[in-house]
Amino acid sequence: MNIQQHLTTNSLTWKEIELDLFRALQNAFTELFTALLEDIDRQLAETRDKRRYHLKDKRRTTIQTLFGEVTFERNYYLDREQNRYTFLLDSFLAFDGSQSISPCLEETAMGLAVECSSYRKAAHTLAQMVGYPVMSHETIRQLVLEAEVPLHCPVDQRYGRVLFVEADGLFVSLQGKGKRAKEDKILTVHEGWKRNGSRIEFVNQRHYVHEGKGEVWEGFEEFLMNEYAYDPCRDLLVINGDGAPWITACREYFKGRVCFQLDRFHVARELRQCLSGHPRWQAIRQKLAKQDEEKLLVELNSALGTLGDEAKEQQLAALIHRIESMPGCIRDYREWLKEQGVDTTGMYPMGRAESVMSQLAYRVKYRRSWTDKGLRAFFKAMIARMDGIRLFGHRLGEESSHPAEETASTKQTIVNKAKQRIRRLLPEVTRNNVPYLQQSSGTPIYHALSEFKGW
Questions:
Q1: Model pLDDT, residue 269
Q2: Which residues contact 224 (CB under 8 A, 6 or more apart)?
């Protein structure tokens, strides 16, 4: 056996050390967090209105957290004023102790439900993070269905009078015999672009999913008013999308306040279907890339009748008619904005819709079918995630009248006192919890891990 094989099979590996330290941190967290919660509960018992809150007994509960299970006891009271039983600790910390999942774990699970390819994958990923199967895929699905999603999140500051919109539709299969796929109309809105290091990001990005049978653009305009303080008399819209009738209807709804652009991804794909291999194909591609609408139409009309395929001829003729019926739909939108007196410095070409649709399609399509309720809940969760809006799980839904909650400063004082007491427990909890540190002082692993003592 060579030296490399000996080191690989007979010595500690990075993975073993990392897992062992992680388990030690989990155990320390459980002990300290339990002590912290019980200390806060003790302070609440001492400062409560004893005439109102009668202490009945102590009750044990177990909560799943990001660091594993935490089991602790909390006081159970009879509220004489409201004639009901309550846990003051639950009200004080704004969580529902009857649920077995911590708020942080809920948010993490819902985030994984959005980002992973399925609820099962989310459950598996969460188990890998925590170290054991913490919740099932069905539990995660129920969390998404029951989540509070505050999609109303107005932007803090407007940066101009132009709003950029990418519009597209996504067909999703619905569960139930005889139910057909349903198209969800999704619009991405932002105020422009900004550089973040080497990346280009959108300014004040939001997403809108149209619900109900009402007019799409009417509902969208109301959304703009709520989220962007949109002023129909001042603000301008640049809308990019394919030629679907519901999208092109924006020209009639917003009139002269909108510049509509046919999405170049869809136009290029359709042209490739008709003209790939045609002698004029390269020239047509160049005209499209330059967004020279007039010369592009000249090229397309000259190619009409030379394709040798009736279906392609009809497809090309329909595309030409679509472009001609919407003058300016190929032209660079920045030219239109300059005519409106807008400085276009720092503006980029449109075409974000397909990327957004790909993210959504990855999660909701591919041989999956949904209930309407499940699809609505998932869209809200995913859009909140994309827009940087927090998802909330179980909440109490009631306000405590405990004196300790009257001011934030009083509440902070109680928590700080509990933290100070817990700090005194830290040396005892963490002492001797890493077995490798108990090895001979002459070993390299002892010297390496001993350096953590001073942190």
A1: 92
A2: 163, 189, 230, 235
| Residue 430: per-residue pLDDT | 66
Structure letter (DSSP) for residue 455: -
What region, left, alpha or beta, does residue 194 occupy, with left being phi > 0 and alpha being psi -120 to 50 degrees? beta
Q: Which H or E element spans position 70?
A: strand 68-79
Q: Phi, psi at residue 212, to the nearest 5°?
A: 85, -175
Q: In this model, does residue 171 exceed pLDDT 80?
A: yes
Q: Which residues partner with 74 through β-bridges?
A: 59
pLDDT at residue 396 is higher than 80: no
Task: Give the pLDDT confidence score for residue 431 in this predicted structure.
Answer: 66
CA–CA dist 191, 232 (Å, integer): 16
Q: Are 284 and 297 in contact (CB under 8 A)?
A: no
Higher model confidence: residue 277 or residue 181? 277
Produce one character per residue of 326-365: b if its CB has 16 or more CB atoms within 10 Å, e if not: bebbbbbbbebbeeeebeeeebeebebbeebbeebeebbb
Q: Which residue has the tokens 């653009």?
A: 217
pTM, 2 dp: 0.78
The phi and psi torsions of 230 (rounded to 5 degrees) equal: -60, 130
48 pLDDT band (50/70/90 cuts)? very high
Question: How many residues can be counted in the chain?
Answer: 455
**Nearest-angstrom CA–CA distance, 223 and 452:** 53
> Is residue 175 within 8 Å of residue 157, measured between CB atoms?
no
Check the CA dihedral 184-185-190-196 and report its sign.
Answer: positive
**Measuring CA to CA, how many Å separate 166 from each of 262, 291, 419?**
10, 18, 49
Backbone angles phi, psi at 163, to 5 degrees: -115, 130
The pLDDT tens digits of the residues spanning 80-115 come to 999 999 999 998 988 888 888 898 899 899 989 988
Question: Tell me, what amino acid is at 357?
Answer: M
Distance, in Å, from the CA atom of 410 to the CA atom of 429, rounded to the nearest integer, reads: 29
- Residue 397 is predicted with a pLDDT of 42
Residues 4-13: contacts with CB within 8 Å, 24+ apart?
Answer: 12/436, 12/445
Helix (H, G, I), strand (E, B) or coil at 111: helix
Residue by residue, DSSP assigns 232-256 as TTT-EEEEEE-S-HHHHTHHHHHGG
Neighbours of 76 (CB within 10 A): 16
